[in-house]
Amino acid sequence: MREFQLGNSKKDIWEMIPERKIKKVRLGDKEVAVLRLKDTIYAFEPFCPHRGASLLTAFTNSKEEIICPLHQYRFDLKTGQVKSGYCREMEVYPCSLGENGLTITIPQ
Ligand code: FES
């Protein structure tokens, strides 16, 4: 398990990750998609577990789900659980937002 720190304050994170805009960041040798909905940050794999479509242009709904733009499979942003469709779960990575910025934990 490895922890990565982004920014040095909450303000840095608000500027770095505008609300509802999915950004891709490189953490070590892994690319991770990062999304902010209000004050909550989610980190997850940037490609859909179904057929590999980019999730950077995915949609979200009011149930904290991300919706793949290609076949509209839905995944829980907190757990990665598949909510509609048939494929493996989406990888999600624990995030912790504090006064010193954002910490994302990546399993090794
Ligand atoms: S590639 Fe994402 S739902 Fe098919």
From TrEMBL:
Keyword flag Iron: yes
Transmembrane segments: none
Annotated Rieske domain residues: 14-104
InterPro entries hit by this protein: Rieske_2Fe-2S (IPR017941), Rieske_2Fe-2S_sf (IPR036922)
Signal peptide (residue range): none
Cofactor: [2Fe-2S] cluster
Any matching Pfam family: Rieske
UniProt key word RNA-binding: no
Domain of life the protein comes from: Bacteria
Keywords recorded for this protein, A-Z: 2Fe-2S, Iron, Iron-sulfur, Metal-binding
Protein family: Belongs to the bacterial ring-hydroxylating dioxygenase ferredoxin component family.
Protein name (Swiss-Prot/TrEMBL): Rieske domain-containing protein
Organism: Algoriphagus confluentis
